[in-house]
Amino acid sequence: MKWLLGIVLRILKYLLLLLLFVEASSFLIVSVSNYIIYGHIHEGSRVRYDPYALFLNTEGQRHTAYNASEPGAEDVTIWMFGGSTMRGATDYDALTIPSLLAQGLNAWGANTRYTAVNFGENSFNGLMETKYFQKIMVENPDPKPNVIIFYDGANEYVYFAQHGHYGHHGYRRVRGLIESYRSSPFGLVKPFAAALHASFTKELYDKIMQVFVPIEMDSESLRRFVDDSEKRYDYMDAQARAVSARFILFWQPALWVETAEVAPAVRGIEQKGLISSDRFKIMRRNFMTVYGALAERLQRKPYFVDFRNVLCSRTEPAYQPDGVHLTDSGRRIVAEAMRVEIENRLNKPGERS
Predict the structure, then answer these.
(1) Phi, psi (5° rounding) for residue 81?
(2) Of 3, 86, 169, 204, which has the fewest CB atoms closer than 10 Å, so is most exposed?
(3) pLDDT digits (tens, 9 = 90+) for 264-289
(4) Contacting residues for 85 by C-beta, under 8 A, at least 6 apart
(5) Which domains does the chain have, with CATH numbers?
(6) How many CB atoms sit inside 10 A of residue 186's CB?
(7) How far apart are CA 115 and CA 241, in angstroms?
(8) Taking the complete model, does pTM exceed 0.85, yes or no?
(9) Residue whose C-alpha is closest to residue 138's, from 49, 52, 248
(10) DSSP per residue over 286-324, as a string?
């Protein structure tokens, strides 16, 4: 009996060592890839728990420059929601999309003064933005916005490619904490079950799914995802109308999903980046499949504006190495295109003062 117990213990020891090796290797792979893409080993920013929005940046709401300093004959308040591209992948508040938009709008006729509010949160998608909007309306109902902007698309396709449904940043960790207790007998040891869902091995598995496993256009999960997204954006449009505001969904540009021609010299510089769309063909196809399916469903909605190729006329690189976050030049182009769209929708074209 002793020899049998010894064999069992030896097997368990080697299994434990194997699990530790896999987890440590996954940690290294995930951390190095994060450093290559984002410049630091962590994905996302430091956050705090929030019962409405699930999590919010510990640094709080980001300041917007160039807002109206004095009341005008008519004031327009613009609430702007999105992920890190809206919050601004830059150290300078004055170079975020909301700041550049406020600068452009307030350079026009003095009869209207614009105030842009940056509600961008790193890692947010349309699901999280809707929850965040509800939080703001409940906790700070006044003043009401005149325009509500969602800047979406990238985190939509990233999280679907990783999870196969409408996920969000930290999805497995949160789900593991809530469901692990009853999802299996192993869940009786709740801390270990939650740790498994929060492991780097699970995270690496999600990223492998994103990079190497194709998404089929006619899949049932994608159809449900598109249906749910449409309902959510229709809900936001209705909520905007309820407070006499306009809802605008800008479908953001990304190097991974562009379909128009770009100047060869610019494209050549971009393809030398560490994260080249040509090096990850399945991942690019997955992103285009999800992004395109959503755009096709939403294209006839009055609130939808397709910015897929808005940067294709660029004469210098507009994307950072990940192909999603923008350079200063890219943010300026997007902000100017937004300005034109907002002016047209408000029917208030002005003249330069």
Answers:
(1) -115, 150
(2) 3
(3) 989 888 877 655 656 788 999 999 99
(4) 97, 120, 151, 154, 252, 324, 325, 326
(5) 47-164+215-346 (3.40.50.1110)
(6) 11
(7) 19
(8) yes
(9) 52
(10) HHHHHHHHHHHHHTTSTTEEE-TTTTTT-SS--B-TTSS
